[in-house]
Amino acid sequence: MNQAPAPTSFPSRPLPEAHAIFIERMGDHMEMEGMPRIAGRLFGLMLVDQGPISFSELAERLNVSRGSISTNARLLESQGLILRVDVAGERQDFFRLADRPFVNMLHGITGHMRETMVTLEECCFDGTQSQGMTGIRATYDFFAEAVDNLEALAKRLAERNGGEIGR
Amino acid sequence: MNQAPAPTSFPSRPLPEAHAIFIERMGDHMEMEGMPRIAGRLFGLMLVDQGPISFSELAERLNVSRGSISTNARLLESQGLILRVDVAGERQDFFRLADRPFVNMLHGITGHMRETMVTLEECCFDGTQSQGMTGIRATYDFFAEAVDNLEALAKRLAERNGGEIGR
DNA sequence: TTCCGCGTTCAGTCTTGATTGAACGCTCCA
DNA sequence: TGGAGCGTTCAATCAAGACTGAACGCGGAA
């Protein structure tokens, strides 16, 4: 969205064309989802090269500032999509893809939905019995069912070893 | 997000407190989802008062300009969340809640995901067999499974008459 | 102790997009 | 035919927040 550095950026260590496209697509997608575009590109890069990749190499291959890597790597880390790891004899931080990034992603989504549900409870259960209450209850029930559904999907993915990406 | 007119706005025809809170919460939620805040508040209003409500009454009750109602009502209409209806002897447009707004909402979500999947196919199936391909395939498969899951949920909701909100 | 490499933070810049209000065109009624 | 009511559109305004680059603080090495 904001300040796209270049329509398509080619990293210093060239990637197969398909990989480069994939990375940009993940940037597009994450941006649509309300996250910084760089976070999406970073996640995309780690999906094609599961690392470990050093902090400064990330900045080079994505053509972004170190500040952006710092911010966005922390973001992905906090969501359980990537891991910060030590590499023997190296002072730099290294990152690799988390073990089940998509399972963790689903948990992040349902976590947010649960938070919204908590704020909705204030309206749902205020004691009064007005006409409009049925729509509010229906909304709450919809959230509840969606959360159940997504968590069931997460559970299924987690139990399947095919759900494991990365090492 | 942008330019919130007031922390909490109370419509000209006062609503029960819980309804007013609910409307703002839906504004918050839709905003988080990347939609205009007014669209969320409008959807929230129609969930508690399923109408038909006239165009100008919507503007009054939400304390926003007619231009905003025009834009956002069209948006919700395009997503199948509300319906524009005729009211006998009235020149104004009226709106009511769609019959299964949440089912339609799910279809909108899966529609977007399918579009993303199409763009991913370009990278997935380019013939080459590089190492990073497994991550790309895993991403694609995750999307496919999530779409199946959400569409199954939509189908279940649609088949249940409890899924019907509005008249 | 000094220097250098490294990650974080923050002020500054810039883009996006939400919202408004006015102008417009349409339709219906007098 | 004129005017009023109605919905849409568009330029202008404004806030949010993405990204950068520089400054900073913290080690470890010389």
Strands side by side in the biggest sheet of chain A: 1-3-2
The radius of gyration over CA of chain A amounts to: 20 Å
Structural shape of chain A? elongated
Structural class of chain A comes to mainly alpha
User: Regions of chain A with pLDDT < 50 over 5+ consecutive residues?
Assistant: 1-14
Number of strands of chain A: 3
How would a textbook summarize the main sheet of chain A? Answer: 3 strands, antiparallel
Q: Count of DSSP helices of chain A?
A: 6
Secondary-structure element series of chain A: HHEHHEEHH
From the N-terminal CA to the C-terminal CA of chain A, the straight-line distance is 32 Å
* Oligomer type: homodimer
Name the chain pair whose interface involves the most residues.
A-B, 47 and 47 residues
Mean pLDDT of chain A, to the nearest integer, reads 87
User: What share of residues of chain A is helical?
Assistant: 55-70%
Beta-strand content of chain A = 5-15%
